Automatic annotation (TrEMBL):
Any single GO BP term: cAMP catabolic process
Top-level taxon in the UniProt lineage: Bacteria
The protein's name in its UniProt record: 3',5'-cyclic-nucleotide phosphodiesterase
Domain Metallo-beta-lactamase: 25-228
Pfam families assigned: Lactamase_B_2
A GO term for molecular function: 3',5'-cyclic-AMP phosphodiesterase activity
Species, as recorded: Billgrantia endophytica
Length: 253
């Protein structure tokens, strides 16, 4: 099983989509990177796990469900959107509210809708695809709004951890300790160190915070994929990460 990064940018620009990952028939987040998929590829998707409600992680969800509508109706299919209860409430109130977008969780009928919200609880693993499938474990992270990261593993996928959007605090360190061994860590780093206070205020990481987090892990990851760089600061963040990550295999997405 491969994790395919469809988008991982902290902003927009040619060739840069916001967060969306694909593993088999599962999506993690539905940012503008989702626009990389063909209609046929979208039709394979059965589950969308959301980290949080912010637009850069959800903006293509309304288009996805609209694009799949006929196919789902014809096949009696239903797209499962998995998220924290607070995130589901936000999407119901502000996105699928029949003003911004139709409420596909009651269309074409309440009994057989094309989209279903499934509440998640931190640390309650969800198994997708039975034996040999994916085990997806949500864990709490520290953002401005209720948010999760995900650990994804399967028989042929060593533990992959995606931080989602988060800053560093004591709870995040506890969560990472509980995750145990990590093969690949996709970790956000949105701002350079000169914007440390904005990073804290908006719930994001800087290279100095990445250093602090890694220094507190009992099981450092084998490799790091750094994500969510704000395009305006990309060069600066990369330069600051070089001394922080010199002992790791790493790349900026
Ligand atoms: N206090 C703030 N001042 C300026 N920009 C902010 C502030 N809070 C949030 N943002 C920006 O708004 C963005 C919302 O999405 P992000 O969390 O990815 O990143 C956030 C920041 O880029």
């Amino acid at each position: 099983m491969l994790i395919e990064v469809l988008g991982a940018s902290g902003g927009i620009g040619r060739g840069q989509g916001t967060t969306a990952l694909r593993a088999g028939n599962v999506l993690i987040d539905a940012g503008s990177g989702l626009g990389e998929l063909t209609l046929e590829e979208m039709r394979q998707i059965r589950h969308v796990f959301l980290t949080h409600a912010h637009l850069d992680h959800t903006v293509y969800l309304p288009f996805l469900i609209d694009s799949l509508f006929d196919h789902l109706v014809a096949n009696q299919g239903c797209l499962e959107v998995m998220a924290l209860p607070e995130v589901i409430g936000t999407l119901q109130r502000h996105m699928f509210n029949r003003k911004v977008w139709p409420d596909f969780s009651v269309l074409p009928s309440r009994r057989y809708p094309v989209m279903r919200f499934v509440p998640l609880a931190p640390w309650q693993r969800v198994d997708i695809g039975g034996a040999g499938g994916l085990g997806i474990t949500p864990f709490p992270v520290s953002h401005r709004v209720p948010a999760l990261g995900y650990r994804v593993a399967s028989a042929d996928l060593p533990p992959f951890v995606f931080s989602g959007d988060t800053t560093l605090d004591a709870e995040l360190v506890v969560a990472f300790q509980r995750l145990g061994e990590i093969d690949t860590l996709m970790l956000e780093c949105a701002f350079p160190d000169r914007h440390a206070s904005l990073a804290k205020q908006s719930g994001h990481m800087t290279p100095a915070l990445v250093r602090q987090l890694l220094g507190q892990l009992a099981h450092p990851p084998e490799r790091l994929w750094i994500s969510h760089l704000k395009p305006a600061y990309r060069g600066e963040i990369e330069a600051e990460l070089i001394p922080v990550l010199h002992d790791y295999q790493w790349t900026c997405l």
